[in-house]
Write the structure tokens for this entry.
Amino acid sequence: RKEVEQDPGPFNVPEGATVAFNCTYSNSASQSFFWYRQDCRKEPKLLMSVYSSGNEDGRFTAQLNRASQYISLLIRDSKLSDSATYLCVVNSPTGFQKLVFGTGTRLLVSP
Amino acid sequence: EAQVTQNPRYLITVTGKKLTVTCSQNMNHEYMSWYRQDPGLGLRQIYYSMNVEVTDKGDVPEGYKVSRKEKRNFPLILESPSPNQTSLYFCASSSRQDSTDTQYFGPGTRLTVL
């Protein structure tokens, strides 16, 4: 089983739509969770950290469900510029802490 | 401007010809790492460094070497490249040694080994 699993998509949505991605992780001891955004073959950039109580940043809402070991990202009022791949990232507390990246979920927002 | 730079951005080489990909950051970060990204496999860590002269293997270190003689630089060395090292490589840095802080990535190096 992969440490971090995501639906690769693509998710095709029209502008203005609301879309949600989920990501599951296997290590129950993980403590840090992030969503990164990656435009086509460019470098990943931090979109937002995910906190236990859930957090919001403008049109983006991230939530964590420790019991079921998944995190989610909700995007409201999708823009064309939201088209990208969204990477779920979890820290792996095995010895020296490191980050484990999911393979990403691709989002395509159309006019 | 705070940034991570990598060179070269694109490289086509032949099997067995030693090469070095440079990485430099200007944010005084202690933690640096190298990743490779392949379709369907996501980003996988090759090596990381917690500080000057402190490096360790990540998940896929075979065929790679690194050094950290200065805080700002973390070059990736392929002593004898092979076609299975054809990939997109990213260098990253962060301020915290435990890597749970924001990772800042370089623009990537697209390597093709023939």
